[in-house]
Amino acid sequence: MGVSRGDTVHVVYQMGKVGSSSLYESLRAAGVPNLYKIHYLSDQGIERAQRLYAGFRTEVGVPHLAASRELRELRRSRPDVRWTVFTLVREVIARDVSAYVQMVDLLNPALVDGPEPDVGRIARGAAAQFLGFDERRNYTCRWFADELGAVFGVDVFDHAFDHARGWQWIRTAGVDLILLRTEDLTRVLSEATTVAVDVPVAPVYASARSPEKLQAAYEVNTYRRVLDRVRIPERTCRRVYDAKYARHFYTDQEIDAFTDRWTKRQEG
User: Where exactly are the structural domains of the chain?
Assistant: First the structure.
């Protein structure tokens, strides 16, 4: 890695399915230097991801693993390097549903083995993951503690989030953290990057879908059909949105709107 003393490493570092491909491509198009995209940087996170992917019947590589290892070594060996980390949050149910649909080829191959994906069963599987929801075990709710906190020592929940602004800049001795809500990305990206890194970045849409990935059910039209059929009871939604993560990043009114969005599908 060609990083000189005094350089800043820019990293799009976040959980999956929050719009990181769009954010990364936006920053890249604007010429932000020393730019990387990863989901895991902690030793435990990298090891868990490797175990997870090794357990699938189909051989698929851990996303961005080479970059994760390279940056982990840089973190250990170059204390002089400054880090600017861009990280995204997304409302819990939407993120977890999207993740399930993208991974269904690996999690439940039978649902995509026919002439076309079984939309109804995929939708039911996406909803079923919230039964018995426990924020202490949920990947989305745990990500900031297990990854960002473990690596950089930043507890984002110690910093009040301005919901109206839609983004946040947290500065510490070791890292500048630019935190953005996926729902506000188009609206706030230029302001956030102008303030934090002195580069006004214009939003560029990019999809995580690629020919190298399985993602049979994540094809655009199929994905939309799945979303139209996901049905989650209000009591379950309320349990999910009562998590600390949801309450920190979203207002009561926004949570009510999310709940209404998912429960109304029950009536269709």
Answer: 8-267
Which tokens sit at 252? 């009561």
Instruction: Indicate the angle between helix axes 92-107 and 119-128, nearest 10 degrees.
Output: 120
- Asked if the model's pLDDT at residue 208 lies above 90, the reply is no
Cβ neighbour number for residue 263 with a 10 Å cutoff: 17
Angle CA 241–128–259, to nearest 5:
30
Handedness of CA 126, 132, 133, 139 (dihedral sign): negative
| Residues 125, 117, 105: CA angle, nearest 5 degrees | 65
Percent residues over pLDDT 70 in the chain:
94
Which residue did the predictor score with more confidence, 58 or 152?
Answer: 152
What pLDDT does 266 receive? Answer: 47
- Residue 96 near residue 189 (C-beta atoms within 8 A): no
142 pLDDT tier (thresholds 50, 70, 90) = very high
pTM: 0.93
Is residue 22 within 8 Å of residue 94, measured between CB atoms? no
